[in-house]
Hints:
The protein is mainly alpha-helical. The protein has 18 helices and no strands. It starts with a helix and ends in a 9-residue tail after the last helix.
Amino acid sequence: MINFIDRQTVSVLAPIIRQFFHLSNEAYGNVVAAFQFGMMSGELPMGWVMDRWGCRLGLTLAVCWWSAATGAQAFVRSGTQLGLSRFWMGTSECGNYSGGMKVVSQFFPVKERTLAVGIFNSGSIVGAVLAPPLVVFLAHRYGFRAAFLFPASLGVVWAIAWWFTYRTLPAPAIEQSSSEVPLSTLLSQAHAWAIMLCRFFVGPVVQFYWYWLPSYLYSARHMSMLQIGALSWIPYFLGGIGGVAGGWAAASLHKSGASNYRVRTVTMYSSAALCLASLAVPFVGTLVAFAAISLVIFAHNFLSANMYGCITDLFPESAVGRATGLTGVASGLSGLLFPLLTGFLVDRISYKPVFALAAMMPLLGTVILFILARKRRFNESSHSALPA
C-alpha cells in the first residue's frame, strides 16, 4: 500500500508538476521511464538480496531506501532532478515484489499461494485508491512538495515495525540453498523466458493507468484536480477487488481438483479477454469510459494475481526471489519503453493508439506464456529443483 502511494504521488500531481516544471507529454514520459529504468536496474540485485539474506533484512533495506527517495522528491528543482529521484526510488521499489513473492512461497502451501498473492498484491491497489484523495488534499492544503513527505514517513514507520515483528520460518535450508540454482540455469529454461515475456507485455498496461490516468482525465476529459482526486480512486478500488478475486478463483479451481495448468489457463485467458475493453475508452462518454477503465483494471489485477502465481508454479522456493527479479527486469524494460512511446503518441496523435495497445498486450503476453511454458512444468511441484 505504501509502495503505491509513493508511486502514485507523481502521477496524481502530474497536472501541477508538469505546469510547474514546464514538462511536455514526452518530458513527463521521460520521468515515468526513469522510474521504470530504476525498477529494471534494481530487480536482480533485490531478488538476490531476498534469496541470499532473507526478507527481514531485505524488505527493511528496500523500504528505507525508497522512502528516502520519495522524501527527496519534495526538494527537486527541475524535471531532470525529479527524473533522477524517481530512478533512485525505482531501484528499491522493485523489492516489494521479489520480497513479497518470497514470503508467500515460504509461508503458504501451493494451492493457497495465488490467493495469498492476490491479497498481498491488493495492497498495491489500496495504495492507488488512497493516493488520489490523499495527495490532492495534501497538495491543496500544504503545497505539492508536502505530498511527498507524508508517504516517505509512512515507509520508515513500516520498516521499523517489520524489523521487530517479522520472523522467518525455521527453514534455513531455503535461504542457504539459493546458490544451488545459478542465474545461468534460470535463464536456460524456456519457462523462465515464458513468464518474463508475459510480464513484459502485461506489466505496462496497469502502469499506463497508474501514471497517465490523471493526465488523461485532466487534458482529454477536462476534469479539475478536485474532481480527479474525488473520482479517480474508483477504478483502483475495483482493481483491488480484482486481485483478490483472481486469487479466490484460482483457490476455488484448485479445490475442485483442477491442475495448476488448468487453473492458470482459465483465469488468465478470461481476464486477458476483458482487458480488451480498453479499446472503447477514447470513443465513449466519461461515465462509460470510467466503467471501461474500472473493468480493465479489475481484469488486469485478476490476471496479475495468477501471473505471479505462475512464478511459484514454475520455480522452487530457493529461486523465487531471483525469478521474480527476472520477470521484473522484463517488466521494467517494457515499462521504460512504453511511457516513452505513450508521450510520443499523445503529443503527435492522441491517446487512441495507446488505449489500443493497452487492450491487446495482456492477451498477447498470456498467449506467449502458454506457448513457451510446458504444461508438465506447471503441474510439477514448485518444491522440486529446476531441471538441468
